[in-house]
């Protein structure tokens, strides 16, 4: 090997290690120059560099070395899969910046009620947020209401005429609901007050006991209320009936990608509605959020099947024109899957729901990494180099610290998905 | 008259610069917001030479805004995409370029970070795998089995492109 050796690069260790004092001129060796800080920045920098490549270049780069393969794979996924973001900007108590992104992890847990019944329940965002807070102390100081990043794998959008839009009603409903909603902290307090013993399996990190209690009478109602309020995830509402199945698919993959590109997504995940439930898959309608990029409100259709794979466009002809594509997507060529590629891509999409790797890898990741020692190492690396008076302040990197950390989790998932696309 | 800000480089040297120029850095802007302009701003991750280069960029971009570089790159020649001055600015040795990337990332100067990363991308674009390895002195740590696996898994992308 050369002076700058790459040691132990695997799926579990994305970051290259370099022996000290050996010259090695490459961006991915930057940890050599700033060994205490920069290794956690390698991946983000590489991602920016790889952003400038097309699919052909990325394919080629995946053969250069393992690290390039991993990063190129991530970038390929960004280009293949639709990505959506809920910035939570309309949460009144939120004072966070665009960088303050919370990632939403889902896993299963057993809930034991007073009557002795035990049932599996999907872990909701309340725990998720807290769990992430535990994992990353930097998040602890933030408000409970935070932007949340979600992704939808294999989503396809197509423009629909404005006059066909039902968004006027949907928006007003959502706004009305938010107006009626209580302060998030009040809801959380309500949640805590009506608590009952809640047995959580497969958990290793310590959590406040008050959060381990749930009222048997009000648990479901309050729990869901909290969840919805915190996340604005109307799309996940049980009231949507069959859509819940597909929305779980949305949930399943939302933790797979974390990227700054997500923040550029033009869509609001909370402005979503199932338009049509079909045996081959439900159709969702998303609303493009207002942003500095585009102030117009456009509607897009998203179709996904029940197995989580990509289906062909419902009306591909209307999407064929690049003018119909969202501005950001057109510019970045990242968020939209071209209709003419769909049939081929769909062959490669996982035939099975990503539930399996969600359960395995996400939970495993969370369990494997909750150690505060590791967290300390992670955050401390950058804190050591921060200027004075900075420890208590915001994050100043272009890429949020937790994003880097979560990138490890996400990357494991991505790699598993890539390695076993037909599981 | 603009307010002057004192930046302390890695070597401990003080560089005085007007506030408006350094406000391009989100890091420095946040520090000024927190502590005001009277307090010196330590930048322990940035050497004096790189800091001066960064400041040169900040001064220039004030007068000559740089449009966002289109992705993916249309050309391997950066000069085809951006104004000449910016191309010259990043036409430096690899080590300096990567120091600039690090500084831009640390100081949170997005235009500079993207410019420098685009320059690295042009150094890779259009080159063969071997050339890329040679250019950046990268050891191939992929086993033949892994390479075969990558080839297999990339087939779908190739099919999609065709």
From TrEMBL, chain A:
Annotated ranges, domain F-box: 45-79
Organism of derivation: Euplotes crassus
Cited InterPro entries: F-box-like_dom_sf, F-box_dom
Domain of life: Eukaryota
Family annotation (Pfam families): F-box
Protein's name according to its UniProt entry: F-box domain-containing protein
Upper lineage: Eukaryota, Sar, Alveolata, Ciliophora, Intramacronucleata
TrEMBL record, chain B:
Top-level taxon in the UniProt lineage: Eukaryota
Pfam families, sorted: Skp1, Skp1_POZ
Keyword tags: Ubl conjugation pathway
Limits of the SKP1 component POZ domain: 4-61
Keyword Translocase found: no
Alphabetical GO biological process terms: ubiquitin-dependent protein catabolic process
Boundaries of every SKP1 component dimerisation domain copy: 110-157
Pathway as given in its UniProt record: Protein modification; protein ubiquitination
SMART domains (alphabetical): Skp1
Assigned protein family: Belongs to the SKP1 family.
Protein name: Suppressor of kinetochore protein 1
Species this protein is from: Euplotes crassus
Lineage: Eukaryota, Sar, Alveolata, Ciliophora, Intramacronucleata
């Amino acid at each position: 090997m050369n002076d700058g050796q790459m040691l132990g690069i695997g799926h579990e260790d994305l970051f290259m290690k370099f022996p000290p004092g050996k010259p090695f001129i490459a961006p991915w060796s930057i940890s050599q120059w700033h060994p205490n800080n920069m290794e956690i920045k390698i991946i983000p920098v590489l991602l920016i560099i790889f952003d400038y490549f097309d699919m052909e270049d990325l394919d080629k780069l995946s053969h250069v070395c393992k690290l390039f393969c991993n990063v190129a794979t991530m970038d390929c996924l960004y280009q293949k899969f639709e990505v959506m973001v809920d910035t939570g900007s309309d949460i009144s108590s939120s004072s966070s910046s665009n960088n303050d992104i919370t990632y939403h992890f889902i896993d299963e847990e057993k809930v034991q009620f007073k009557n002795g019944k035990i049932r599996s329940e999907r872990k909701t965002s309340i725990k998720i947020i807290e769990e992430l807070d535990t994992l990353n102390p930097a998040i602890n100081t933030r408000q409970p209401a935070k932007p949340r990043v979600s992704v939808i794998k294999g989503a396809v959008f197509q423009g629909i005429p404005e006059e066909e839009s039902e968004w006027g009603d949907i928006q007003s409903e959502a706004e009305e609901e938010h107006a009626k909603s209580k302060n998030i902290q009040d809801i959380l307090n309500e949640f805590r007050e009506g608590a009952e013993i809640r047995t959580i399996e497969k958990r290793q990190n310590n959590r406040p006991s008050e959060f381990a209690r749930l009222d048997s009478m009000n648990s479901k109602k309050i729990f869901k209320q909290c969840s919805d309020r915190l996340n604005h995830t109307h799309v996940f509402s049980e009231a949507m009936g069959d859509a819940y199945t597909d929305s779980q698919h949305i949930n399943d993959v939302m933790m797979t990608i974390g990227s700054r590109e997500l923040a550029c997504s033009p869509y609001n995940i909370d402005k979503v509605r199932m338009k049509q439930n079909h045996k081959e898959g439900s159709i969702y309608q998303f609303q493009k959020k207002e942003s500095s990029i585009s102030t117009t409100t456009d509607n897009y259709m998203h179709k996904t099947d029940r197995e989580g794979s990509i289906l062909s466009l419902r009306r591909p002809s209307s999407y064929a024109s690049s003018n119909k594509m969202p501005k950001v997507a057109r510019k970045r060529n990242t968020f939209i899957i071209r209709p003419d590629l769909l049939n081929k891509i769909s062959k490669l999409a996982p035939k099975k729901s990503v539930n399996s790797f969600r359960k395995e890898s996400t939970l495993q990741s969370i369990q494997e990494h909750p150690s505060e020692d590791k967290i300390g190492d992670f955050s401390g690396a950058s804190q050591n180099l921060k200027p004075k008076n900075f420890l208590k302040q915001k994050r100043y990197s272009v890429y949020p610290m937790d994003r880097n950390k979560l990138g490890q989790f996400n990357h494991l998932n991505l790699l598993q998905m890539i390695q076993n696309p037909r599981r | 008259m603009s307010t002057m800000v004192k930046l302390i480089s890695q070597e401990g040297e003080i560089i005085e610069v007007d506030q408006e120029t350094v406000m391009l850095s989100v890091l420095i802007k946040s520090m000024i917001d927190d502590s005001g302009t009277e307090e010196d701003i330590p930048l322990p991750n940035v050497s004096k030479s790189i800091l001066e280069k960064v400041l040169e960029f900040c001064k220039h971009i004030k007068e000559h805004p740089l449009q966002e570089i289109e992705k993916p790159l249309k050309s391997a020649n950066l000069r085809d995409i951006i104004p000449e001055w910016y191309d010259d600015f990043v036409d430096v040795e690899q080590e300096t370029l990567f120091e600039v990337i690090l500084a831009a990332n640390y100081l949170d100067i997005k235009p500079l970070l993207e410019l420098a990363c685009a320059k690295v991308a042009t150094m890779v674009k259009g080159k063969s795998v071997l050339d890329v390895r040679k250019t950046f002195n990268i050891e191939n740590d992929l086993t033949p089995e892994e390479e075969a696996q990558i080839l297999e898994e990339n087939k779908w992308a190739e099919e999609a492109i065709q």
